[in-house]
Design brief:
The longest helix is centred in the last third of the chain and has 25 residues. Helices cover 40% and strands 14% of the residues. Helix 6 links the parallel strand 5 and strand 6. It is globular, with a radius of gyration of 21 Å. With 370 residues, the chain is an alpha/beta fold. The strands form 3 sheets. The chain has a 7-stranded mixed sheet with strand order 2-8-7-6-5-3-4, with helices on both faces. Strands 9-10-12 form a 3-stranded antiparallel sheet. A two-stranded parallel sheet has the order 1-11. Helix 5 runs parallel beside helix 6. The chain has 2 domains: 111 residues, Aspartate Aminotransferase, domain 1, CATH 3.90.1150; 221 residues, Type I PLP-dependent aspartate aminotransferase-like (Major domain) (Aspartate Aminotransferase, domain 2). Bound molecules: pyridoxal-5'-phosphate (PLP). Pyridoxal-5'-phosphate binds next to helix 3. InterPro entries: Aminotrans_II_pyridoxalP_BS (IPR001917), Aminotransferase_I/II_large (IPR004839), HisP_aminotrans (IPR005861), PyrdxlP-dep_Trfase (IPR015424), PyrdxlP-dep_Trfase_major (IPR015421), PyrdxlP-dep_Trfase_small (IPR015422). This is Histidinol-phosphate aminotransferase. Keywords: Amino-acid biosynthesis, Aminotransferase, Histidine biosynthesis, Pyridoxal phosphate, Transferase. Belongs to the class-II pyridoxal-phosphate-dependent aminotransferase family. Histidinol-phosphate aminotransferase subfamily.
Length: 370
Amino acid sequence: MTDVRIDDLPVRDELRGKSPYGAPQLDVPVRLNTNENPYPLPEPLVERITERVREAARNLNRYPDRDAVELRTELARYLTKTGKHPVALENVWAANGSNEVIQQLLQTFGGPGRTAIGFEPSYSMHGLISRGTGTGWISGPRNDDFTVDLAAAEKAIAEHRPDVVFITTPNNPTGNAVPRETVLALYEAAQAAKPSIVVVDEAYVEFSHGDSLLPLLEGRPHLVVSRTMSKAFGAAGLRLGYLAAHPAVVDAVQLVRLPYHLSAVTQATALAALEHTDTLLKYVEQLKSERDRLVTELRAIGYEVTESDANFVQFGRFDDSHAAWRKILDRGVLVRDNGVPEWLRVTAGTPAENDAFLEAVRDMKKEHSA
Ligand SMILES: *Cc1c(COP(=O)(O)O)cnc(C)c1O
């Protein structure tokens, strides 16, 4: 058989020579590299999921609720309760992870001949999904301290007139939140230029010191807030993301969603998890204090740390961040090298995992100064 590689296939030009997204999944004792929640779901919730899924299994001969009405109603209730802004069923859309939400938004508002912009370093999937949907990607600037350079961002928006603007707050991989006034200014700039859809990616907002930007939806029909159950809810394996926006945006994304995209098993599992919101958010409080401890201790050891409103911390600086990543790995702890020169990212784990990480970097620092 002849050896056939990707580039021997008639793949689209923009996919040639590219690699798929993926953090290394290495088998080491302490894995703090993908911003997952370290706590398994509590046993009563596991029981409730089992009950709900058993019920759903009895009807698997039928297609699921295409509009996921019960689930969207419960998500709206959760957002209303925690977001200081009333959100209704018509404002909410759900899909298989917020990555699918983002894909549907780009299929609806981006696509061939259109562009999207993000302010980098930021979540690399915004650019990758843009490429996958044929949307041109524009990499906007940040300042050296990883805050959004507002003047430069406004200039880039005016110049490129993008169809979609991504603002990740708290930002991944840097951890810092984007101030409300900056988001408002970028929304205004985007409306003046096009007008375009502005997607505020709040994947980590439950870990933030500040509030959600949901109240900004009032009177702003081109604003979308995207959320996920992968981080704060500790349910990365579930694959459930959602958005809140004007009902017209929810109607628009239905033009591109696959029919019955959200399985009955997924809907049942997510509904069970939402019944246990209060318990799950208690873990968030614990992770927030562990995150703050990582910031304090890393600084005490002598590292620079970017302010974090997320469940992870960006620390540096390293002459060779990949070599530092390797040294930490050699000490049994896997962190993330996002390709941001001089910096690495560590996810807040359990207190014991964080102790192991701090021990590893303390040891590395000692070796370095010896
Ligand atoms: C992890 C993450 C997501 C979540 O993606 P899911 O598909 O919901 O797991 C979205 N946005 C950002 C910025 C993230 O870091």
